Amino acid sequence: MNSQSCVSIQKEWDIVAARQMGREIAKQLGFGTVDQARITTAISELARNIYLYAGEGQICFEIVETLEQKGMTIVATDSGPGIEDLSLVMQDGYTTSGGLGAGLPGVRRLMDDFDMESEVGHGTRIVTTKWVR
Ligand SMILES: Nc1ncnc2c1ncn2[C@@H]1O[C@H](COP(=O)(O)OP(=O)(O)O)[C@@H](O)[C@H]1O
Ligand SMILES: [Mg+2]
Q: Could you tell me the pLDDT band of residue 2, with boundaries at 50, 70 and 90?
């Protein structure tokens, strides 16, 4: 896979489609089943946030390869309301989901690199990578 693969998130079912595409890419990259589960959980959390808080957006997957490492990046973008206080939503316990993924702090823990940008009234972009080990 050279180009990036995206799933547009508009309805609840799209969350499942994003998970499936992500799992397929993770498998192809050589991630073990435990890491595949971590990655798909992260995808679910990000896609569900788009669906719930922004209404619509997209989840894209990129394969990243350096000389020493190979990994998978998830890019979640939306043009929704944005997040006012980024450090607040990254605190454990702020999340209301309570599920396996434990919201955005959970995504950060499940993945290796995590970066979030958001502008109130303009939208949110989260870029997170997991490296194959
Ligand atoms: N894409 C988004 N756009 C706007 N607000 C968001 C987005 N993602 C998350 N948020 C805000 O951040 C909060 C924390 O998100 P999260 O950690 O996933 O927990 P939860 O979804 O369980 O509340 C949400 O309650 C919501 O207010
Ligand atoms: Mg959430």
A: very low
Q: Quick one: pLDDT at residue 3?
A: 55
Q: Are the C-beta atoms of residues 126 and 46 closer than 8 Å to each other?
A: yes
Across 8-37, average pLDDT: 98
Position 62 pLDDT exceeds 70: yes
79, burial (CB in 10 Å: exposed 0-12, middle 13-18, buried 19+): middle
Mutate to test the pocket of ligand 1, among 9, 44, 53, 96 (most ligand atoms within 8 A of CB): 53
All domains in the chain, ordered by first residue: 3-131 (3.30.565.10)
Compute the distance between CA of residue 21 and CA of residue 91 in angstroms, rounded to an integer. Answer: 29
pTM: predicted TM-score of the whole model, two decimal places: 0.95
